[in-house]
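Hi P.,

Sorry for the delay on this. The queue was packed all week, but I finally got your sequence through. Input first:
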Amino acid sequence: MMKFVPFSPKQLRVLTWWRPRSPDCRRDAILCDGAVRSGKTLCLSLSFVMWATQCFSSMDFALCGKTILSLQRNLLEPLLPVLRGMGYTCRYQAGQRRLTVSRGAVANRFILFGGRDAGSASLIQGITLAGVLLDEAALMPRSFVEQALARCSVPGSRYWFSCNPEHPFHWFYREWIEKAEEKNCLYLHFTMRDNPSLTPEIRRRYEGLYSGAFYRRFVLGEWCAPSGAVYPMFSVRDHVTDTLPAHLTDWYLSCDYGTVNPCSIGLWGYCPDDGVWYRTAEYYHDSRKTGIQRTDEEYYAALCALAGDRRIRGVAVDPSAASFMECIRRHGVYTVLPAQNDVLDGIRRVSELLRRRRLRFSAACRDTLREFALYQWEENAREDRPRKENDHAMDEIRYFVSTVLSPPEKNRAPFCAAAVPRQPQQGMNRKEESEDWVF
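Then the structure:
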């Protein structure tokens, strides 16, 4: 059984807001936002299941996340041991993405949905729900969120939201946080101090992971727009070296392809002695400056010259560069890795590695160093985006980090559990005996 320290006052309010004696019990929804690791997700999901069990039986509820894998990892994995320790019976059918939670004679079904893109809204159409929990609601498209809310037509149904802050022009901020009272929604803002399980040392560690707008969002819990340098933590003293380690392993190449725009290719090697990835060399061609446009074969020859006789484990390539990827495959020398291209997630990953000093750059990579100094956020934009200038080496570095060092969820090991033989229990029918219950 998971051991808890006493809940904070804000967590206790989340756990009890729906109880008849609570001053918040007439609310139609609850919304918890704020800093990362602030303790909002576990108490919100636990309260959701407790409310469902107390108020309904034989009903359907929705658990929604950006993806099924993130929902399983971030919500189910910490929640299920707690529920079991409290006397609930939890059975998860992975194939149907359905969790059945029962206690005594009461049982309800919790169906998992991923809201990755606008097309995800069709996945939740047609179902009738008694309640919905949207984890990281600001990461889901508006069409999916509104379709999920529209499915809650059972009398007494309620909405449950959690999210970390994004841009202050984000539709979720405008429609739910600014209009919380209008929508009869209980809005609670969390900081790391609302999570009593975090020690001061752990809080300081998280505070050291971020800078700029990401610090304000993930540590202070503010909805703010980024400004200034995209990588303010980058410094020549900490991240640039004149002398490379003698023994580097695990060689990779990364490429941001361009014909009219610049083409940037980087060579990366890992040093096991210090745990740092080094960008040892680069190729950078700007056709606007030289007046010469190069072909796929010419870029491939430049890539081969950069690799030399090293054993290259893969080439992370701009996913839109279909012709160049085909050119590499046709030669049969290097493995092509279509790059993961989520810009903001990639910037966060690069920022974290720079903060931890796990990326270093040869002083010979002059175009990379130039772009680090010039790479800026777009000002007065209604969404987070860097300026589309001085960004070709920056994009290519992001491809390497996101694809090789932080592969996307679809390439990670899935959430899974093994079925084990069970003795039939009294009152269990044969259909139930044949199913592979995970929990």
